[in-house]
Amino acid sequence: MPKTSLDKSKIKFVLLEGIHASAVDALTAAGYTQVDLLPGALEGEELRARLADAHFVGIRSRTQLTAEVLAAAPKLVAIGAFCIGTNQIDLKAARERGIAVFNAPYSNTRSVAELVLAESILLLRGIPEKNAVAHRGGWLKSADGAFEARGKTLGIIGYGAIGTQLSVLAESLGMHVIFHDVVAKLPLGNARQARSMEALLAEADIVTLHVPELPSTQWMIGASEIAAMKRGAILINASRGTVVEIEPLAEAIKSGQLAGAAIDVFPKEPKSNKDEFVSPLRGLDNVILTPHIGGSTVEAQANIGVEVAAKLIRYSDNGTSTSSVNFPEVALPAHEGKHRLLHVHQNMPGVLSQINSILSDNHINISAQYLQTRDDVGYVVIDMDARSSDVALEKLAQVPGTLRTRVLF
Ligand SMILES: NC(=O)c1ccc[n+]([C@@H]2O[C@H](COP(=O)([O-])OP(=O)(O)OC[C@H]3O[C@@H](n4cnc5c(N)ncnc54)[C@H](O)[C@@H]3O)[C@@H](O)[C@H]2O)c1
Ligand SMILES: O=C(O)CC[C@@H](O)C(=O)O
């Protein structure tokens, strides 16, 4: 049974994938001295070895934290996804092990929206192709196939944080915005919800995807959806690589069904900057290919570092789990002068009453108690006198269904 009650100097953070130094600065300022910062993603044995004694791990989109990997990380208390997407983490497996997952849901929203808008303008003008031809010594001076953004229709699939931000920016350029979402959304400005995804595909001059990676979004744009788009339209994907089928997209660019595309995410992305990028889209001049950098701006990465580090620090120091993407959310006040016991358990009837009976049987007075559950996991936080916490930790770790216990001083 993982039991944690540690001095900050013994708590180990492993930050992978070149997370911004702002995260290290925040952790160090909060008193955490063991922070390993690694430039790339890890997998297999290397990843397991790194996580064997880690209490916190920080990743971006490349590191796959599967159930098997989590099983090899017995001390892991929480995971920081220093990005928006959390599809690379088995969230259920993490919760079932009592591991909370935090992300940065908004810090790179603006960066993605700006990139998509810039790509829309460049593609409408055929700039990627003209640029490529000029690099080869050619000169494509022509207005044919070059259009203003003003008055064009932008179709946004997934009207969440990024989709809505983009909607506002696009309208400021005089574009018409239509959107499709599985949830009813308040249209911003003059944007309008399309009757269906098919209706959006048939009407938009530019289709851009901003959905999460889910079973329902897998390959949602394939040959038939591309065929349903207007001839000469543009497709942009800065969401996840499993959303668009790449082969039919390449065919549609070659046949002229689509005038251009901008793709930032791919079904298979290189593991590091040293590996070759392989894609049927390579060599197609009017396709902008970017290496999953939609959210990679200095501003976004610095903000993400601060935001996610703050969530990990708060969870480590105080037990507050609000904004976790997989864990019961509890907002806790400070616990000055008290010891705080955190108990994560399987969500089944009777656990709380057993905890309280044990405390009562051992004459442990409760100063404050908080409980929240999420799906199959419950999270109880109990503040008590310092002299009681050793006994309480010992006894509560034995309650059937206990997943993890921690005490904070
Ligand atoms: N390229 C990058 O660097 C980069 C950066 C940030 C985010 N992303 C990706 O973009 C995604 C979207 O980010 P966000 O912050 O806007 O997320 P969000 O959760 O705020 O919005 C996603 C929207 O998609 C909708 N949706 C879900 N399934 C759908 C479906 N089948 N059809 C239509 N709509 C559907 C949701 O209802 C929601 O409104 C993230 O999940 C992430 O994978 C990529
Ligand atoms: O920084 C990354 O690796 C991922 C960025 C983006 O896809 C996200 O989900 O925020």
Automatic annotation (TrEMBL):
Pathway participation: Amino-acid biosynthesis; L-serine biosynthesis; L-serine from 3-phospho-D-glycerate: step 1/3
Domain ACT intervals: 340-409
Leader sequence segment: none
EC number annotated for this UniProt entry: 1.1.1.399, 1.1.1.95
Listed GO biological process terms: L-serine biosynthetic process
GO terms of molecular function: (S)-2-hydroxyglutarate dehydrogenase activity; NAD binding; phosphoglycerate dehydrogenase activity
Keywords for this protein: NAD, Oxidoreductase
Catalytically driven reaction(s): (2R)-3-phosphoglycerate + NAD(+) = 3-phosphooxypyruvate + NADH + H(+); (R)-2-hydroxyglutarate + NAD(+) = 2-oxoglutarate + NADH + H(+)
Entry-linked PROSITE patterns: ACT (PS51671), D_2_HYDROXYACID_DH_1 (PS00065), D_2_HYDROXYACID_DH_2 (PS00670), D_2_HYDROXYACID_DH_3 (PS00671)
Pfam families: 2-Hacid_dh, 2-Hacid_dh_C, ACT_AHAS_ss
Family note: Belongs to the D-isomer specific 2-hydroxyacid dehydrogenase family.
Summary of the function given for this chain in its UniProt record: Catalyzes the reversible oxidation of 3-phospho-D-glycerate to 3-phosphonooxypyruvate, the first step of the phosphorylated L-serine biosynthesis pathway. Also catalyzes the reversible oxidation of 2-hydroxyglutarate to 2-oxoglutarate.
Full protein name: D-3-phosphoglycerate dehydrogenase
Taxonomic placement: Bacteria, Pseudomonadati, Pseudomonadota, Betaproteobacteria, Burkholderiales
